[in-house]
Every structure is written in C-alpha cells, then in structure tokens.
C-alpha cells in the first residue's frame, strides 16, 4: 500500500515541472544586456567575477539557396534541431573555473543530439540519450561521466552526433524563455546566429571561414565528421513541442514561465487545490481507517471472542453511566482541577480589586491639596473656598452664622447645667466659742445610718429612679473663659482644741 501511495505522489509531482525553474541571471546592468542586430552585436556582462564588454561582434547567418552557405551579416538565422539531453544555467562565471572570453556572456549551455524535430518527438521517454554530468563550468566543454552518452568520448567513431551550444540571449524575452530548456528529454529547435572570430585570440566556438561547418537548404546546421560541434550562438528563437519562445514574445503559442502542459497555470492551481489537497486529506482519512481496522483485527486475534464481548460490555456500561450523569475518576479529577483553577483565578481577581480600591482611596486622600489650602486667601464674596480642584471645601456665610448660634446655645446650656448641679457654697455663721467647739465636735463625728433590712434597701433602691444627666453635644465650640469661684478659706477645724475644757459637759 505504501508503494502505491509513493507512486501516486511521484506521478503527481511531475505536474510541478512548469512551476519550478532554474536560477539564472537578471537582464540588465547587474546581469547581462545585449544590443543585437544582424549586422553587429554589443554585450555588457556583469554576472561574473569581473565585468566584461564585447563590442562590434559580427553575427553569422544563413543565405538560403540550393547550396546554402554561412556568411557574416546574413539576415536568416541558423537552426539546430534535435533531442535535448542536458542543459545548464549560469548565475555567475569565474576565471578560476576556466571561464574566459565570450564565456562571460553565456547564460545557458545545452547538449542536443542531432536529428530532425519529428524524429526527436518520436523518442520514447527513457529510450533517449542520458548524460551524467559531473560539472559544466566551461560552457562549451562539459565534463560528463559514464552514461548512455559520454560527451568527453565523442569522436569520429561515435554513432551519435551532438551539438554543444553556448547560448547568448538577444532579447529579454529570449533570456526569460531559456528556462524552458530546463526540462530535458524533449524535442527542440534553437534558431540563432554564430559569432564570427574577430581576432587571432579567438579560440574554439567561433565561426571560421577556413573551416566552416556546412548547412542544408533549410539552414539546418550539419554536424561534421567529428560528430560534435561546439559553438557560441546568439539565440533568436526557441521552438518546443507545444510552445514557442520568440524574440518579442508575440507568438500565438508563446511559452510562459510556470505554464503547465494540458492544464495551464490556473487549471493546475485548481487541480492542485481540489485533487492535491482534497486527495491528500482523503488519503489521510483512508489510512487512518486502515490502521484502526488493523488494530481491531490484531486485538480480536489476541483477546478472542469472549474478550471482545467483555470489552464491548464495558464500553456500553461506560456509555450508560455517562448518560445517567455519572462521571469517571479521570473526569472527576479534571473537574476538581478546573474548579481549583477557577477559585484561584477568582481570588486573584478579588485581590486585584481590593488593591485597586485601596489605591483609589489612597489617591483620594492624597488628592487633598494642602498647599492650595495654605496658599489660598479668604475671599470677599458670599462663600469662602478651601483647597482646590475636585477636593475643595466651601463654607457659606449662612453656615458660619449657624455655627456661631449653635456655639452660643451650647455655651448657655452648659452654664445653666453647671449652676443647677453645683450649689453655691455658704460660709458658716460664727457663734460663741463654746457653740463653735460643740458644733465642731458633733460635726466631726460621722452620723450612723439607720439599720434597715436588706429587702427594704433593695426596694428603695429599685423604686427610686436615678436621674441621668442630659448629654450635651459639642460641635467645634470654643469655650469661653469662665472665672472660677474661689471658695473662701474655711477655718481649720480640729476635733479638739488646746483650750477645750473637758470638765464642763453641759450643753
């Protein structure tokens, strides 16, 4: 089952071929910029370890006739058709890796097995030539390993013929469309112009009139006796099996980056959303069902029929108890933990509220502006204001007068109560010395109270009500200074004088 799923995933991943592309350089001053015409070409390259400029390069085209020939300045392009076996894209060039000269202007290299376009379309997938690349630092000379075709070993005795082309884009659209060559094993036709050698320093890859390759009447380049041609090419057009990359991008079936065969861009997105995501979810559910079914089968094998019936009975009892409102110990523990968390949360909130109320009270107390009270002066209006802001106290004239009247009434009440409760003291009347002595003697002896029964005393105490003094409330009154009544100095009395005559007991 796993192998089937893996195979399905691999097949579906093939539809992503048009959405993923190689990394290449940008068109412009930081990458490559080409000013091309059939007469001359100028190149500015800045994507290597050093910037390069190539001026007055001479394109070589085809002069169609019965015996077509190659000539510099010709208006017709040269065609290279065959089966695309390998390609490589460059985002930089380094001289340390062997790049030199016009290599700094090459953005893509391809290896094409020479044949007609129709024959290349008939090649069955898997039967075509396969190249095992080791590295491809020098655009014209790839290093390959053992495969069905080893380009390092191609010579006059080889059975197949090859084009190794170092491609230079002539327009921005061609530069972007070269990404279509990232898909190997497809028929392809590349139309362009060769580069004429402009000096003795020109090495391989340039057109040489002394050893010029031959072409047929349709301007298709013919591979020579060496069975391999290594050439620089100004690309003007790329023909694929179902699309075309033109120089201006106005072709009817113009290739676009991210385009998917048969589905198209938007069709592929919808297909991916519906089939990809939906199918993936469906496969996940199906796999889960398979796992559950396998687990049931294994458990049935281990426990037997009786064990399975007991498990079913336990499950039914659990469902019945849950329907009756009973909970399991696990659920009870969860409930207790949840209640404890809620209580802790409530206590925290209460503590926060108490802290907030306390802080608000403190702020209210601290909001009383003592400095404003001290600095404020009495106003001449109908009211006087103390403090400031929201914590101010206003005293009107009526309240001040009422306080004065209240203070006077309280003072008079206190004075009247003092006169009633404290009788005035009267000095004694002086008599004769004997009467004074006898009075002193009698007055100094304490009078004995009558002895009564405890019941009568209790009754008398209970029957006589005790007068309570009327409490007088004071409201911020200032007591007036009252002259204290100084009692007259009484003569010091003693029980017996020095001159007392104890012999006379007459009264």
Unreliable segments (pLDDT under 50, ≥5 consecutive)? 379-392, 416-422, 431-447, 452-472, 476-482, 484-503
Radius of gyration: 61 Å
Class from secondary-structure proportions: alpha+beta
**Largest sheet entry:** 5 strands, mixed, barrel
Give the CA-CA distance, first to last residue: 147 Å
- Which strand order does the major sheet show? 6-7-10-12-11
DSSP E strands, number: 15
- Percentage of residues in strands: 15-25%
Mean pLDDT reading: 75
What is the chain-wise order of helices and strands? HEEEEEEEHEEEHEEEHHHEEHHH
Please estimate the helix content.
25-40%
Outline, from the CA principal axes?
elongated
Reconstruct the topology from this structure.
Layout: H1 2-13, E1 32-36, E2 41-45, E3 52-57, E4 59-63, E5 69-72, E6 78-89, E7 108-114, H2 117-121, E8 132-135, E9 143-145, E10 162-169, H3 172-177, E11 186-195, E12 228-239, E13 244-245, H4 264-323, H5 329-366, H6 370-375, E14 383-386, E15 393-396, H7 397-421, H8 433-444, H9 454-463
């Amino acid at each position: 089952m796993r192998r089937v799923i893996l195979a399905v995933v691999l097949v579906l991943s093939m539809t992503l071929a048009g959405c993923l592309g190689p990394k290449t350089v940008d068109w412009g001053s930081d990458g490559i910029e080409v000013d091309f015409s059939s007469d001359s070409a100028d190149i500015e390259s800045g994507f290597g370890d050093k910037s390069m400029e190539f001026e007055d390069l001479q394109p070589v085209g085809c002069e169609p006739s019965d015996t077509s020939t190659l000539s510099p300045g010709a208006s017709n392009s040269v065609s290279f058709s065959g089966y695309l076996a390998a390609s490589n894209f460059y985002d930089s060039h380094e001289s340390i890796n062997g790049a030199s000269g016009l290599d700094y202007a090459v953005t893509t290299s391809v290896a094409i097995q020479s044949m007609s376009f129709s024959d290349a379309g008939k090649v069955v997938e898997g039967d075509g030539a396969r190249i095992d690349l080791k590295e491809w630092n020098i655009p014209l000379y790839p290093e390959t390993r053992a495969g069905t075709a080893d380009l390092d070993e191609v010579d006059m005795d080889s059975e197949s013929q090859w084009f190794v082309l170092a491609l230079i884009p002539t327009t921005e659209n061609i530069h972007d469309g070269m990404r279509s060559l990232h898909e190997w094993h497809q028929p392809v036709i590349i139309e362009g112009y060769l580069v004429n050698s402009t000096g003795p320093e020109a090495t391989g890859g340039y057109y040489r009139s002394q050893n010029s390759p031959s072409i047929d009447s349709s301007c298709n380049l013919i591979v020579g006796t060496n069975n391999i041609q290594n050439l620089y090419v100004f690309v003007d057009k790329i023909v694929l099996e179902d699309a075309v990359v033109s120089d201006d991008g106005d072709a009817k079936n113009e290739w676009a980056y991210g385009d998917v065969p048969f589905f198209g861009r938007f069709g592929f997105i919808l297909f991916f959303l519906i089939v990809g995501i939906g199918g993936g979810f469906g496969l996940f559910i199906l796999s889960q069902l398979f796992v559950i079914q396998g687990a049931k089968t294994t458990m049935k094998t281990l426990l037997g029929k009786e064990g399975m019936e007991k498990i079913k009975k336990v499950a039914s009892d659990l469902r019945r108890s849950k329907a009756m409102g009973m909970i399991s110990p696990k659920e009870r523990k969860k409930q207790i933990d949840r209640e404890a968390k809620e209580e802790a949360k409530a206590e925290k909130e209460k503590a926060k509220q108490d802290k907030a109320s306390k802080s608000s009270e403190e702020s209210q107390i601290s909001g009383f502006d003592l400095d404003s009270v001290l600095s404020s002066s009495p106003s001449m209006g109908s009211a006087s204001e103390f403090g400031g802001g929201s914590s101010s106290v206003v005293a009107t004239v009526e309240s001040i007068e009422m306080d004065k009247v209240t203070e006077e009434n309280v003072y008079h009440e206190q004075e009247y109560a003092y006169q009633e409760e404290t009788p005035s003291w009267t000095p004694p009347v002086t008599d004769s010395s004997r009467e004074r002595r006898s009075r002193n003697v009698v007055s100094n002896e304490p009078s004995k109270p009558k002895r009564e029964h405890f019941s009568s005393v209790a009754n008398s105490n209970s029957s006589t009500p005790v007068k309570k003094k009327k409490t007088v409330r004071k409201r911020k009154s200032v007591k007036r200074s009252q002259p204290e009544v100084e009692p007259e100095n009484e003569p010091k009395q003693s029980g017996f004088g020095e001159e007392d005559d104890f012999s006379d007991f007459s009264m």
